[in-house]
Design brief:
The chain contains 18 helices and 8 strands. By secondary structure, it is of the alpha/beta class. It has 3 domains: 190 residues, 3-Layer(aba) Sandwich (Rossmann fold), CATH 3.40.50; 76 residues, no CATH class; 94 residues, no CATH class. Strands 2-3-4-1-5 form a 5-stranded parallel β-sheet, with helices on both faces. The chain has a 3-stranded antiparallel β-sheet with strand order 6-8-7. Helix 15 crosses helix 16 and helix 15 packs antiparallel against helix 18.
Length: 398
């Protein structure tokens, strides 16, 4: 077995960690719920998506995949973008022998772009996918998985109509049994308020949020089995790994893979640790290979991804860094901390992955993040941003 440090896992990968989200997403989709998985990067969203598609397809259901990152090209008009979405669904269903797409498209001339998507689902998708499920003989369910949903934010036109289309499909279930066959799951790094600017559109209010939590000790048996081949006291070592990573999936896989690589470089292909030295050994490993000079060693990128999200928007960066500073100060002083709220700043900070909600307060997610994005780093970034802002104002006044 290998560890997967970056990218999505194959549906049958032995290193896949089954979490509560797996069963929740599967059961909610089967129950005809609209589901969404909105979380920070490198938390296993894509692997969860692929695993769920594999599971549903193995039961005879039709699963369609839309990659919004691929579809959200620059300078697309609404007409071209909606056509690309419809074409992606059309080709995923292999409808070329049943429907002449160009003829159908021509009949929609003069119809607004999102209306064409409505028509395609009702006139083509639900009509031509009518085979019976081999499991229960019922009309086939169709699940549409929409990945990288945050890519829609880069389009140069609003996409409220797209989310209204999904909402319409669910509203139709009450009057049109055919729409009861249709289900959706959205995946991405965004908050509902980021995606929908229309406060009267209630799509996410009718949906089921699927929470992707960090790995717990009782869940990581697949990782532990491989670790046993590389190091003695493997269970104690895994506990120390989870202490430093907080169970963050990418970091947990990365540290585990690092230990295996080190073991392969030893003469007997296994690291023999004396008892009760595991904590010190893992601490030294983390500091040497991840924390110290992290900007040069962050490969595949993870810490850079967090840093870039924090600093991407210069105006928002000052607010985010100030919030991090408050969280760090509360932890250092061991006070109750920064209470969670629904502010845009907290939502954005949570999406960075740096912090988590714990007992009603914001906390730095793990000791690795606390060491890298520490008070000195935050202070340095704030000083630089404020100097740049002051310098820009000085130039503007000349």
């Amino acid at each position: 077995m290998r560890y997967q440090v970056a990218g999505s896992l194959r549906s049958d990968d032995l290193s896949y960690i089954v979490r509560q989200a797996d069963e929740q997403l599967y059961a909610s989709l089967k129950a005809s719920d609209f589901c969404y998985v909105l979380n920070s990067r490198q938390m296993g969203k894509s692997s969860l998506l692929q695993r769920t598609i594999f599971r549903l397809r193995s039961e005879g259901y039709e699963c369609l995949y839309l990659d919004m990152n691929r579809l959200a090209a620059n300078n697309l008009t609404p007409e071209k973008w909606y056509k690309s979405v419809i074409l992606s669904l059309f080709h995923s269903l292999n409808l070329g022998q049943q429907v002449n797409f160009q003829n159908w498209w021509d009949t929609q001339a003069g119809t607004c772009p999102v209306k064409k998507l409505y028509q395609f689902v009702e006139e083509v998708l639900l009509i031509h996918i009518q085979s019976k499920s081999p499991k229960d003989g019922k009309a086939e369910r169709i699940f549409i998985f929409i990945d990288e949903i945050d890519s829609l934010l880069s389009l140069n036109f609003p996409v409220n109509d797209f989310f209204a289309w999904i909402s319409h499909c669910y509203n139709q279930q009450a009057d049109n049994p055919n729409f009861q066959r249709l289900g959706f799951a959205l995946f991405g790094v965004a908050s509902p308020s980021d995606l929908i600017s229309d406060k009267y559109l209630t799509l996410f209010n009718i949906g089921i949020p699927i929470e992707l939590h960090d790995f717990q000790l009782h869940e990581v048996t697949p990782l532990l089995e491989r670790l046993k081949e590389a190091i003695s006291q493997s269970e104690a070592v895994m506990q120390e790994i989870l202490y430093w990573t907080g169970g963050q999936p990418f970091l947990t896989q990365k540290l585990s893979q690092l230990i295996v690589q080190i073991a392969l470089e030893t003469s007997n292909r296994i690291i023999n640790l004396p008892r009760h030295t595991e904590a010190l050994w893992v601490e030294q490993l983390v500091k040497t290979h991840i924390i110290q000079h992290w900007e040069e060693k962050d490969e595949p990128e993870h810490l850079h991804t967090i840093r870039d999200r924090l600093l991407f928007n210069k105006q928002r960066a000052v607010q985010l860094l100030s919030l991090i500073e408050r969280v760090l100060q509360a932890e250092e002083s061991q006070t109750s901390g920064v209470p969670t709220d629904n502010s845009p700043e907290q939502a954005e900070l949570l999406l960075s992955g740096l912090v988590e909600k714990r007992d009603g307060y914001l906390r730095i997610k793990n000791p690795i993040y606390r060491s890298v994005f520490n008070s000195e780093w935050v202070s340095r970034q704030l000083t630089q941003l404020r100097f740049t802002e002051k310098f820009s104002r000085s130039l503007a006044s000349l």
